[in-house]
Amino acid sequence: MLVSLASAKGAPGTTTSAHVLAAVWPAPVILADADPFGSDLIYRLRSSAGLPLDAERGLLSLAAQVRRSPDADLSEHTTTVDGGLDVLLGMPRPEQAAAIASNWGAIAARLRTDRDVLCDVGRLAPGVASLSIALASDLLLFVTRPGVDAYGHLRDRLRWIIEETAHRAERPGLGVVLIAPWKQRHEADDLARLLRSGDVEAPVVGTLAHDPGAADSLAGRRPRPLGRTLLVRSARSLAAALHGGPRPRPEGGAR
Predict the structure, then answer these.
(1) How do the domains of the chain map onto residue ranges?
(2) In 10 A of CB 44, how many CB atoms?
(3) Which pLDDT tens digit goes with each residue over 64-105?
């Protein structure tokens, strides 16, 4: 299963959401960083030996290999980071995404493996390089935070994706992940009603706790046990639901 996480606008926490979900995923998984505007994981993570990561091994090396062999082995381009998670690293600079423009479709095909892949595709908009991965996914989740402006951008971007894929035989299931303070998790119900009232078929699949301390620890900015944090506990519930539950599909969708 290929699950892409995206934002409609700004930086609502897509990378952190993908990272924490992969860290607690209840099956073998690869965390992929395909944000064409530049990778954060390269700087946040360390190798299993505690060393900085090699940016040349990841999306860039995979792109180079798929030019020669469309059946490139994804595992040859992943890095096992501290904690044991396998990661396909992204690119440090946006211009590198443009340099491999002709290979994004082939990369999307290689992300469909016998292992689950959680992919951060960054901010989605027309013409964005990672759009081919998002549209090839089994499930495309938009990450958002509470707010009238955030919900407005989310609704508009979901409508655009629905229109973009309306005539495709295969298209991703759509869903929304809300990041909110845990005492305000009822916001998910309000958001779901808002989307339904706007005739947008995209369920709110769950809520991740807004937990800045845990997010800092996950990113390596401060030492702190993570297991009992609200962020990780909410991520475990969401990961279990996504992995074991029915996959949301737009009306008429097929795969």
Answers:
(1) 2-244
(2) 17
(3) 999 998 889 999 999 999 889 999 999 989 999 888 989 999
| Spatial CA neighbour of 208 closest among 239, 246, 170 | 239
Q: What is the C-alpha separation between 58 and 25, in angstroms, rounded?
A: 21
Q: Which candidate, 251, 10, 247, 207, places its Cα nearest to that of 123?
A: 10
Neighbours of 74 (CB within 10 A): 21
Buried b (16+ CB within 10 A) or exposed e, 139-174: bbbbbbbbeeebbebbbebbeebbeebeeeeebbbb
Taking each helix axis as running N to C, give the angle between helix 230-244 and helix 14-24, from 0 to 180 degrees, rounded to the nearest 10: 70
pLDDT digits (tens, 9 = 90+) for 157-202: 999 999 999 888 889 999 999 999 999 889 999 999 999 998 999 9
pTM above 0.85? yes
Rounded CA-CA distance 142/176 in Å is 5
* CA–CA dist 183, 175 (Å, integer): 22
Q: How many Å apart are CA 143 and CA 127, to the nearest integer?
A: 20
Enumerate residues 6+ apart whose C-beta is below 8 A from 50.
82
Report strand pairing: 86-88 vs 116-123. unpaired
Sheet holding 204-209, edge to edge: 79-80, 86-88, 29-33, 116-123, 2-7, 139-144, 173-180, 204-209
Rg (Cα) of the chain, in Å, rounded? 17
* Whole-angstrom distance, CA of residue 104 vs CA of residue 59: 10
Q: Which CATH number fits domain 2-244: 3.90.180.10, 3.40.50.720, 3.40.50.300, 3.30.200.20?
A: 3.40.50.300
